Amino acid sequence: MRILGIDYGEARVGVAITDALNITAQGLETIQRNGSDKVVLRRLDEILANYEVETIVVGMPFHMNGTLSERAKITQDFIHKLKCKYNKIKIETVDERLTTVEAHRTMNFLDVNKNKKRNIVDTISAVYILEIYLNSLQNETK
């Protein structure tokens, strides 16, 4: 069973998934929201049909001081939709602070073309969100 990571954004939603053993996280894709969660949920239906997913992890946007951001309420509404639609799948959240910064740092290090950055930054952020979650699971077992 795999774990799916989501970086939920206003324009785009990054998606990442673990390998079958939940050891590594790989970027899957970036979904263009087109102003509607229906587009995202439809694509998630297709992804979930192709992978056995036991947990969905969504990045929760906090301010640097630890308080919830304005975007957090919108993210919480999206999580509610996920819980209603996928009620047999565990839905978790992780603090996503600085994941986008790290994604940009990674792309700069890899010298990614600036025109391509916009299309992959959310997917890379989703990978970081998933890695944060995987690390928290490892810390629980120690």
Strand order of the largest sheet: 3-2-1-4-5
Number of helices: 4
CATH topology: Nucleotidyltransferase, domain 5
What percent of residues are in strands? 25-35%
Biggest β-sheet description = 5 strands, mixed
The total of beta strands comes to 5
Description:
- Helices cover 49% and strands 25% of the residues.
- The chain is α/β, with parallel strands linked by helices and 142 residues long.
- The chain has one domain (2-141): 2-Layer Sandwich (Nucleotidyltransferase, domain 5), CATH 3.30.420.140.
- The protein has a five-stranded mixed β-sheet with strand order 3-2-1-4-5, sandwiched between helices.
- β2 and β3 (25-32) form a beta hairpin.
- The longest helix has 28 residues, at 114-141.
- The radius of gyration is 14 Å and the shape is globular.
- The model has no long low-confidence stretch (mean pLDDT 86).
Summarize this structure briefly.
With 142 residues, this protein is α/β, with parallel strands linked by helices. The chain has helices spanning 37-50, 70-85, 99-109, 114-141, and strands at 2-8, 12-18, 25-32, 53-60, 90-95. The longest helix has 28 residues, at 114-141.
Furnish the topology, listing elements before pairings.
Layout: E1 2-8, E2 12-18, E3 25-32, H1 37-50, E4 53-60, H2 70-85, E5 90-95, H3 99-109, H4 114-141
Parallel strand pairs: 1-4, 4-5
Antiparallel strand pairs: 1-2, 2-3
